[in-house]
């Protein structure tokens, strides 16, 4: 469904993606792991055109992603995104945040959207917090609103950029459990994460990025339990047994 | 000379007509300057060179000319080019043009201070630039820009006294005429200063209230 073909991306002279080939199938959960600076966030952000790329091709159900083409807006409505720092709209309540896209981008009926948005917020456990502004919510609650906001677009896939990295430890669980539910419902997800245990549980596939290249790529079991590449072994040793 | 109280009573009506002119000039040029300033700010933050560059040059050009020269130019030179404005109109246009730059920079500062993540979040739900500005960026930018904008308003109010040089009968002009006909400089200009304070102090209090209220809403 999401396909990378020999994708190269540079920031100025610095090449961050050096020929990425990968594919995420419909209903699949793919986790991107790797050290910081390995290019995993950039790879994710290329999928919905928040970053452009210089050569190769990224496509979604066969349609090429081009950050500079006007077709990018339609693509973004089909591929939702969840950010590390939530990025909720601070001047809107939780409910308004979730309703914003469907009403003002997709032009859907307000009453239907409202009912659906309330349902999404209930599902992520925030029935009581719908009329709260983001600043009145904890990090974990904000991130769950952000997930509800993504779901409200009824996307074909969701991109998640380190969704638990900015959270206090006690709030990581509540967000991961929402993602676990989504994985069970076969929501297509591409997740940049450092949560190795979570990846082991929910991921169908894991990609290990190292300095802009895919060093290892396979089932969660294969990459995370029996890594063959020395870099992967080293990385996993460091993140699972921090010094 | 008659007692102070009587003199104040005598001068006040004339100065109050000037005060209303000051209010009128200020409000009209504030509306125009804000609208124009918003245009400059939106052009500059559009991300397209053929919009941002002209806006930058216009702002730099206007900012480089003293307000008095702008006023003289509009009032004395424009008629020769076929644009005949009354002193009042010329004053409003001159103030509006000059202040559109300051207000534009204030708005631009607000727009640029909005978190990058907001733009990305708006884009990621498929919003186009215009709607993103309207619904996501500007509401937050206005809140950030409000304190410096309040400052711009007070400055504009005080600088409206400059239009007296092209004979707009606002507060300063009335004061000047009154002082030169009565030679009672102290009373007249003290009254003029007090009348300006009657405008600026409430304006400052109002701005502080609005800021507090806006701050509490987030």
UniProtKB/TrEMBL annotation, chain A:
Annotated GO CC locations: plasma membrane
Membrane topology annotation: Peripheral membrane protein
UniProt entry keywords in alphabetical sequence: Amino-acid transport, ATP-binding, Cell membrane, Membrane, Nucleotide-binding, Transport
Cellular location(s): Cell membrane
SUPFAM superfamilies reported in the protein's UniProt record: P-loop containing nucleoside triphosphate hydrolases
One matching Pfam family: ABC_tran
GO MF annotations in UniProt: ABC-type amino acid transporter activity; ATP binding; ATP hydrolysis activity
Family (UniProt): Belongs to the ABC transporter superfamily.
This protein's name: Glutamine ABC transporter ATP-binding protein
Species, as recorded: Pseudosulfitobacter pseudonitzschiae
Name of the encoding gene: glnQ
Automatic annotation (TrEMBL), chain B:
GO molecular function per UniProt: transmembrane transporter activity
Sequence similarity: Belongs to the binding-protein-dependent transport system permease family. HisMQ subfamily.
Protein name per Swiss-Prot or TrEMBL: Putative glutamine transport system permease protein GlnP
UniProt-listed GO biological process terms: amino acid transport
Function text: Part of the binding-protein-dependent transport system for glutamine; probably responsible for the translocation of the substrate across the membrane.
GO CC, any one term: ATP-binding cassette (ABC) transporter complex
InterPro entries found in the cross-reference section: AA_ABC_transptr_permease_3TM, ArtM/GltK/GlnP/TcyL/YhdX-like, MetI-like, MetI-like_sf
Domain ABC transmembrane type-1: 19-207
Membrane topology, as annotated: Multi-pass membrane protein
Organism superkingdom: Bacteria
Record-annotated membrane-spanning stretches: 20-43, 55-76, 186-206
Chief location of this protein within or outside the cell: membrane
Keywords (A to Z) from UniProt: Amino-acid transport, Cell membrane, Membrane, Transmembrane, Transmembrane helix, Transport
NCBIfam families, sorted: HEQRo_perm_3TM (TIGR01726)
PROSITE patterns: ABC_TM1
Compartment annotation: Cell inner membrane; Cell membrane
């Amino acid at each position: 469904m999401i396909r990378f073909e020999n994708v190269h991306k540079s920031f100025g002279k610095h090449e961050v993606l050096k020929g990425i080939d990968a594919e995420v199938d419909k209903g699949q959960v793919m986790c991107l792991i790797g050290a910081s600076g390995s290019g995993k966030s950039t790879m994710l952000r290329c999928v919905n055109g928040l970053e452009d790329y210089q050569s190769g091709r990224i496509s979604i159900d066969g349609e090429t992603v081009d950050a500079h083409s006007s077709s990018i807006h339609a693509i973004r409505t089909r591929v939702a995104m969840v950010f590390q720092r939530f990025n909720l709209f601070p001047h809107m309540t939780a409910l308004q945040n979730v309703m914003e896209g469907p009403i003002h981008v997709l032009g859907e009926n307000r009453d239907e959207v409202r009912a659906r948005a309330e349902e999404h917020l209930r599902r992520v456990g925030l029935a009581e917090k719908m009329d709260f502004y983001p600043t009145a919510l904890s990090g974990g609650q904000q991130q769950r609103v952000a997930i509800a906001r993504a779901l409200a677009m009824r996307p074909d896939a969701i991109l998640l950029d380190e969704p638990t990295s900015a959270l206090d430890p006690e709030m990581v669980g509540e967000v991961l459990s929402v993602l676990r539910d989504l994985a069970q419902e076969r929501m297509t997800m591409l997740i940049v994460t450092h949560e190795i245990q979570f990846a082991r549980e929910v991921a169908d596939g894991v990609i290990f990025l190292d300095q802009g290249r895919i060093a290892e790529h396979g089932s969660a079991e294969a990459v995370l339990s029996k890594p063959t590449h020395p870099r992967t072994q080293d990385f996993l040793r460091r993140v699972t047994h921090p010094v | 000379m008659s007692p102070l109280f009587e003199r104040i009573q005598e001068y006040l009506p004339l100065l109050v007509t000037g005060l209303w002119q000051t209010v009128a000039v200020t409000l009209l040029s504030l509306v125009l300057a804000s609208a124009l300033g918003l245009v400059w700010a939106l052009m500059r933050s559009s991300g397209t060179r053929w919009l941002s560059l002209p806006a930058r040059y216009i702002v730099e050009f206007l900012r480089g000319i003293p307000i008095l020269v702008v006023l003289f130019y509009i009032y004395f030179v424009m008629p020769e080019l076929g644009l005949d404005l009354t002193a009042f109109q010329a004053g409003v246009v001159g103030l509006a043009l000059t202040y559109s730059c300051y207000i534009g920079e204030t708005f631009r500062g607000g727009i640029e201070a909005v978190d990058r993540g907001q733009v990305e979040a708006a884009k990621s739900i498929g919003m186009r630039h215009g709607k993103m500005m309207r619904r996501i960026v500007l509401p937050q930018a206005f809140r950030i820009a409000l304190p410096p904008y309040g400052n711009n308003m007070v400055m504009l109010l005080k600088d409206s006294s400059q239009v007296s040089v092209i004979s707009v009968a606002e507060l300063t002009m009335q004061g000047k005429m009154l002082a030169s006909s009565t030679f009672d400089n102290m009373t007249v200009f003290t009254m003029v200063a007090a009348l300006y304070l009657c405008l600026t102090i409430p304006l400052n209090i109002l701005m502080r209230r609005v800021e507090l209220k806006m701050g509490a809403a987030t």
